[in-house]
Amino acid sequence: MLLSEITALRAPSGWEDEARNAIRREAEEILKNREGRVYGDTMGNLYAFRKGTDEGLPHVMLAAHMDEVGFIVRFAGEDGLLRFDCVGGIDPRCAVSKRVLVGEKAVPGVIGVKAIHLMSAEDRKKAPDYGHIYIDIGAKDKEEAERLCPPGSYATFESEYREFGDGFVKARALDDRAGCMILLNALRESDYAGDLTCVFTVQEEVGLRGAKIAARRVMPDAAVIVDTTTANDMGMAKSHQQVTRCGDGPALTFMDRRAIIPQAMRELALCAAKKHGIPVQIKRGASGGTDAGEIHLAGAGVPCLSIVIPCRYAHSPVNVCKKSDIDAAQALTLAVLTEFEARRDWR
Prior knowledge:
Oligomer: single chain
Structural class: alpha+beta
Distance between the termini: 34 Å
Strand content: 15-25%
Number of helices: 9
Number of strands: 17
């Protein structure tokens, strides 16, 4: 599945059906002539299991989340404007004036706010919040608005995939469809001889909820989480503030708000990167988090590794990554699986 295709799928947290169905079809095609199966759970997670040939190797779980940030309709006013809230962390300042698609029928709309020349001097001093912005779908009244987009309808940013500049790509939901694409490619290309389960999790953006269920279902010996992370590498940021830099390869996390990555797992990844000539950087910050936050707590504990792709403008309509970093994250994921075979004493 191409990056342009997988980022076009609309799947905010709690409404991941479109992404799950497309990924399921791809995974089933990959495994049709191999021993394994694709299945789901009641939470909505999707699992693609491939049986290994060497029982002495660890059962490795690769994880990436399918969901994206988005919006959900609360009600329509008498004026036909939709009042809504965010699903996941979206700064309302980056939502204003953006185009959105609402509901299963992808009704087009725009996020509106009072025009600046109608604002008071006091209004202009503060950023708008979700109580003062709305989605305008051009409905004439409340009845029409709720017929087209009833309460509970999800909305996503309308933003096309585009390659631009010096090897960059911008799209909606690179966080974390880039990771999902990498998992599908690993399922297809890796010849890892141990058991391998690729898990496409749900509701990561609202609290790692799918990962909590998935880890307890799979109970792997080790887990590799592929996600994106903040790239604060713009010109106004000082060097010590640049958590990661686009173009320097994927980053390895040593600690975030929810997990501390075991040193043995980081060393395994660094060794794999060196052997295969893959550029890699260390994430210079402990903010944010990945599904590792829940996975490492499953059962008696699961050693986790987070491979994260530098991403500018996270949780906005225009995630920006460098294609070379995505490709290197793909190569590193495959190399880490190879390293599990080479280093049976990896713990």
